[in-house]
């Protein structure tokens, strides 16, 4: 009888530096849907895989649509998972990738159960409940809320994310805790604050946050600051050290 290999949950957030894309996608753009040269995107994605010690086929991508669809994946996918904004897996050495340029990337794990998830939570997805949906999917394959750790990656901050007052009120009604006022004194949204509250109220054991604002931080891509632009990636996987690039 052999024991399962030890798993270590790892997370990575990229920046815009160190890739092959030309302006305005310079340079480590990982989005294949923003108008960048496909060859440059492929080179960037291959470099990401090598950088985390996996082969490119072990990275699972999504066709993100600002919805609340969640898919549980049990192995590599040759193409991005269609019409999906959250991925869940229990498979070691399979990296789940979420692309963002202002929306909130959420990386979740129950290390004990061996369950991980990557979530794309923009204003629409967060408003309509992508977070409860992904928690439900994680629990269906063995996770428990109190064991789940969540990481909220770089995103548009409440001090910069300006929206009409009616939109702020609508999102606040569906995602309490997200309404804010920007540095300009205008209505704004802090989606990470609302998501953090939602996760905590769902019993999630720990929530960590990267405080960087994509609109302010020039080392990150921001659709609001300057479109067209590239996409950074949030990546989560359970490493056994057995798959090498």
UniProtKB/TrEMBL annotation:
The keyword Oxidoreductase applies. It comes from Nocardia puris. Purine nucleoside enzyme that catalyzes the phosphorolysis of adenosine and inosine nucleosides, yielding D-ribose 1-phosphate and the respective free bases, adenine and hypoxanthine. Also catalyzes the phosphorolysis of S-methyl-5'-thioadenosine into adenine and S-methyl-5-thio-alpha-D-ribose 1-phosphate. Also has adenosine deaminase activity. Belongs to the purine nucleoside phosphorylase YfiH/LACC1 family. CDD domains: YfiH. Homodimer. It comes from the Bacteria. This is Purine nucleoside phosphorylase. The keyword rRNA-binding does not apply. Pfam families: Cu-oxidase_4 (PF02578). PANTHER family: PURINE NUCLEOSIDE PHOSPHORYLASE LACC1, UNCHARACTERIZED PROTEIN YFIH. Its cofactor is Zn(2+); Cu(2+). Keywords: Copper, Hydrolase, Metal-binding, Oxidoreductase, Transferase, Zinc. It catalyses: inosine + phosphate = alpha-D-ribose 1-phosphate + hypoxanthine; adenosine + H2O + H(+) = inosine + NH4(+); adenosine + phosphate = alpha-D-ribose 1-phosphate + adenine; S-methyl-5'-thioadenosine + phosphate = 5-(methylsulfanyl)-alpha-D-ribose 1-phosphate + adenine. GO terms for molecular function: copper ion binding; hydrolase activity; oxidoreductase activity; S-methyl-5-thioadenosine phosphorylase activity. InterPro entries: Cu_polyphenol_OxRdtase, Cu_polyphenol_OxRdtase_sf, Cytotoxic_necrot_fac-like_cat. Residues 1-20 are annotated as: Disordered.
């Amino acid at each position: 009888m052999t024991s399962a290999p030890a798993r270590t949950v790892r997370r990575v957030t990229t920046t815009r530096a160190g890739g092959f894309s030309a302006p305005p996608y310079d340079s480590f753009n990982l989005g294949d849907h923003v108008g960048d040269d496909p060859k440059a995107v492929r080179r960037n994605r291959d470099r990401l895989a090598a950088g985390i010690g996996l082969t490119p086929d072990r990275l699972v991508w999504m066709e993100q649509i600002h919805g609340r669809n969640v898919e549980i994946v049990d192995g590599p996918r040759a193409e991005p998972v269609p019409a999906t904004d959250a991925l869940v897996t229990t498979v070691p050495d399979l990296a789940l990738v979420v692309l963002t340029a202002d929306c909130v990337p959420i990386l979740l794990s129950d290390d004990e159960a061996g369950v991980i998830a990557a979530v794309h939570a923009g204003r629409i997805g967060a408003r309509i409940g992508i977070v409860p949906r992904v928690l439900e999917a994680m629990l269906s394959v063995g996770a428990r809320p109190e064991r789940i750790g969540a990481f909220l990656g770089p995103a548009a901050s409440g001090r910069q994310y300006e929206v009409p007052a009616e939109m702020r009120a609508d999102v606040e009604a569906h995602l309490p805790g997200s309404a804010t006022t920007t540095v300009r004194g205008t209505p704004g949204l802090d989606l990470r604050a609302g998501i953090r509250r939602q996760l905590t109220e769902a019993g999630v054991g720990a929530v960590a946050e990267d405080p960087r604002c994509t609109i302010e931080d020039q080392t990150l891509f921001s659709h609001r600051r300057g479109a067209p632009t590239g996409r950074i990636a949030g990546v989560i996987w359970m490493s056994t050290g057995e798959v090498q690039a």
